[in-house]
Amino acid sequence: MTKSKNIVVLTGAGISAESGIRTFRDTGGLWEDHSIEEVATPQGYAANPELVLSFYNARRAQLSTVEPNPAHFALAELEKGLMERGGYLTIVTQNVDDLHERGGAQNIIHMHGELLSQWCRACDQKFKSDAAFTLMSPCPKCEVVGKVRPDIVWFGEMPYRMDTIEATILNCDQFVSIGTSGAVYPAAGYVQMARGLGKQTLEINLERSEGSHFFLETRLGKAGDLVPVWVDEVLGG
Ligand code: OAD
After folding, report:
1. Active site (annotated) includes residue 112
2. Which of 6, 27, 143, 148 is a good FRET partner for 205, with 20 to 30 A between their CA atoms?
3. With the C-alpha atoms ordered 40, 97, 127, 129, is the resulting torsion angle positive or negative?
4. Is residue 1 part of a domain?
């Protein structure tokens, strides 16, 4: 095995593209049909909650129609392999789908929230649900109606577990970015943090991301092809 034992992988929409989930900024991406302001900001939700709930209801419903792909499975294999060798893998994902979990990985940080988690703004509790929500839906915890919003981090809100993510990057040997355009901070800035700390850095993406020049190595192609090859190198090398 190479000397990298502790690895942080940052994933974005590109890792789920081959599973059939649309990315955001590619041709045909989600932000072509909807503006970020409309469906991914607190102001958009305040202006038209029905539209926002139905946008996330549709995305949540899609989860039952898609499956993890070889990239998700390979990362689960990497997690297991590193643990057996005394190391660890942390997957920091910007994705709100559950494909890393269904691929078998366990140590996952959903920094932008999760489609299968809901947040009641009346009692401030979060709960798991794959149901569709409307303005008539009661919170299963406090029973207040119409206050359940998607547990998704919108633009202008603070991503989750940033302290843990930064501590994990500080302690890792290698930082790897997979399937993200590098357009959204703070995630896009983690490579600069890793480089500043002298870590190995690798980007795996269909095309060069906006922060591509910060990576020591870039591999261009589909995650489903390239991630299993890289995982074999790490575990077999
Ligand atoms: P983007 O849609 O911005 O970028 C997806 C990246 O994946 C692009 O660089 C593609 O080239 C690449 N890609 C597409 N198919 C691929 C494949 N099969 N294999 C490898 N790479 C592939 O998605 P993100 O970077 O994840 O945030 O977007 C970041 C955040 O912006 C999202 O979490 C979301 C969005 O607005 C919020 O909603 C808060």
Report:
1. yes
2. 6
3. positive
4. no
- For 120-141, write each residue's pLDDT tens digit: 999 999 999 999 999 999 999 9
Determine the structural domain holding residue 137 and report its residue range: 23-65+116-152
Atom 7 (ligand 1): residue with closest C-alpha? 14
For 134-175, how does the pLDDT look when each residue is reduced to its tens digit (9 = 90+)? 999 999 999 999 999 999 999 999 999 999 999 999 999 999
Give the mean model confidence (pLDDT) for residues 13-17. 98
Q: Which atom of ligand 1 is nearest to the CA of 209?
A: 9
Q: Are residues 17 and 128 in the same domain?
A: no
Closest C-alpha to ligand 1, atom 15: 14
| 119 exposure class (CB count in 10 Å sphere: 0-12, 13-18, 19+) | middle
- Residue 197 tokens, joined: 């700390």
